[in-house]
Here is the input.
Amino acid sequence: MPIIRAPGAKAYVALLHQRVPEKKAQHAIFVAEFVSSFAERVGVDHDLAVTAGLLHDLCRTLENEEMLRRARAYGIVVQPWHEAKPNLLHGPVAAEEIRRELAVDDPDVYDAVYWHTTGRPRFCRLGQALYVADFAEPTRDYAEAARTRELLRREGFEAALRYAAEARLRFHRDTAVLDPTSAAFHAWVEEEFGA
Here is the structure.
């Protein structure tokens, strides 16, 4: 089913075009389309996948101080790694905003959007699907995204998830700031879905 037929999708697309630059809006649309293409196959509701895909980066382009201000206002615990890299809070802040402002109160959508950048142990299936789709949507042109898409096609969802979690952790280890939740998620994925 086309993503635009999902409940709320037209309004969410319009909101994206108001709140984020066109490139980010297009990314969110591609994520929603990609996750919806395999959602039901991996046990995820199509409409919830579209909602999470469209809204996951709603706060991605907030300035650092505004991100920190909103996180604190919403009662999100700001860790030292958030202080060093406030953009790590864009998922948690977006999850709060879509619940508060858009009345999207599905707990799996909240969880998926909140943790889409890092993952977390015992991540819900919708969250896992969003994590893969955000990493590997078709306009992502880096080799790891292409490999994730190939694994999804040839070996299935768990293989794609394992690879994406490993690739993201490698990338984040090479940066100055690492959210330890990423490493915990990778370890959980390996334990849960390892070959």
